[in-house]
User: What shape does this take?
Amino acid sequence: MDPKIRNVIVVVIVVVLVAAGLGLYLTRNTGTSTATCNTPLKSTNPLRIDQAEIPGHLDPDTTFSTPGWAAVQQVYQGLVNYNGSSSTQFSGVLASNWTISPDGMHWNFTLRHGATFSNGDPYNAYVQWFSFYRSLLMNQGPQFILSQNFWYPGLWYYGNSTQIANEQTNLSAFLNTTNFFTPSASEIAVMDATNQSFQVLNPYLIELNLGFGYLDSVPFTVPYAYLLASISAPNSYAVDPAVVQTNGGVVPGAENAYLDSNTMGTGPYVLSNWNPIGGGGYTLTPTTHYWAASAALAEPWNNNIQPANTTIDVVFQTSDSVTINDLKTGVAASASFAYTGPSTVDQITGNPCIKVDFLPTIYGATSGSWWVFMNQSVFPFNNLSVREAIVHAIDYQAIINTAFGGYGSQWVGPVPPSYPYYNPQNLNPYQYNLTLAQQEIANSPCANSACVNQVITYEYQTPGKDWSDAASIIQTDLKAIGITINPVGIDLSTLLSEQNLNANGACVSSTNLNSGPFYMGQEFYTSDYISPDDWTQNDAISYGSANMCMSGYANSTMDNLVIEAASTSNSTLLTKYYSEMTSMMYNNYTNAWLIVPTSVAVSSVYLNGVIQNPMASAEPFAFYFNTQWAS
Assistant: This one.
């Protein structure tokens, strides 16, 4: 995403399962079941959540995975967040309201009075200024989300490198020595200065000035349409300056070891008992003196600021079979899996204590839209006819029906379904057509079975029987056109490493590490926030992490289109740009756009207050646990 290389949030489709509840006797439709539920929850306060994946970090400026975001969003808060289940509307959190200049370049956020961190330290515009610039200076995985539009004080992303290096030194010193609760007049003058990304206008008013980031090939020209979505990400959340300064400070380009395992936020929970190993977990306890108690009464519709109802115990459960048993026996009130497919859903469908909801397409799209990449920088994928033959040799419907039990749909990339500017021309998804595939192979260097003895290692994701089944179907399909693949299952962390460069500057995927090289395989993306450019800057632009080392697609026209589309709000131009991008990749057969699996939310009949949102990180598809309680 960043013009450098970004590490994607890659957490596979999260199918959330929530267990049977209290000793009340309720009846609810769950698939075909109409039986009575009589299995009690073992505990209603705390509520236990079994979770397969372990966050790597608890620092909101470092963590870049779904389980990490799920944890920090309970503790930290930002200016705004998604309003209820909407993916396009936002409500204030630490900001009470905001205004936008006519040109869309200046956003003024009025902050709430009386907001504090859970230790009592005050929140104000100076603290928010500190938090924004800390995120930029640390330059960790999610930093690109801010640097699209913002950069260091008075500087432009593409500006003088010496000035940028000097400012990193000066800014870090300022962040590490200033009292941001009661700054001096000279310190206020620094934060009050014009011509910078974040300008403090008074202690409760901060202005965000666009035009300093990497989207601006010409400075100060890009009104970004998805700003509210981008600053809803955790790396825009408020961090306590005093805690940072006391525990390692801000070091440019470096993580903070203390905040990676200790938290201090303004949110409704405090986090304790952090133990990042299998069988470990953490506890979320409602904050005793939560600043938003009064504001929540005045805004009962605003789930983002409501006080927490119950304590939450998150347990890192590494065994799916144990998790399923916990759900069925009421040990766990809810659960999430690293990956789960139809076989897991089938085990709980029909349970009288569990409600199963198959969610709209956008939930699956944000969780993960999948494709088969072919690295067109190497033989035989450097031949257009070979790539066209492959996309028509794959039986997509068989994969959906057999491997996914019918829970999924095809799509056309690079923007996923239900997103703005998805497939503007309504191009048909690639169709299984063996006759056409064989014709294309006959017009390629692989004609007459010339490539049949070249065994191509094909990576696919584990765990999940559905993806191994899909790989087997693709293996059989490609054999019919003389292409031989050897499916190799890899886990999520291995896929991440495959997308990166090694010490010699080579793509890990092109080496023999992890049973590679992998010039073909299964790839996907999980949204950071809902916008079409969040995807095209990953799977279409030449230096995107899901492209550079995977598909190997490099086209300067495409690169320009991606940035131009991210840099305009003109709907006519956007339709034109995304039409061109979609057509270019479609007719280049860059990827075999495969499947958007159906996301499923499963909840106990006794669990109340679950607010679903397609961009949510907690279970089941919820931003927060604060509104949840067991009846």
Remarks:
- The CA atoms of residues 408 and 597 lie 4 Å apart.
- The chain has a mean pLDDT of 90.
- The first strand starts at residue 16 and ends at 17.
- The domain at 57-264 is CATH 3.90.76.10 (Dipeptide-binding Protein; domain 1).
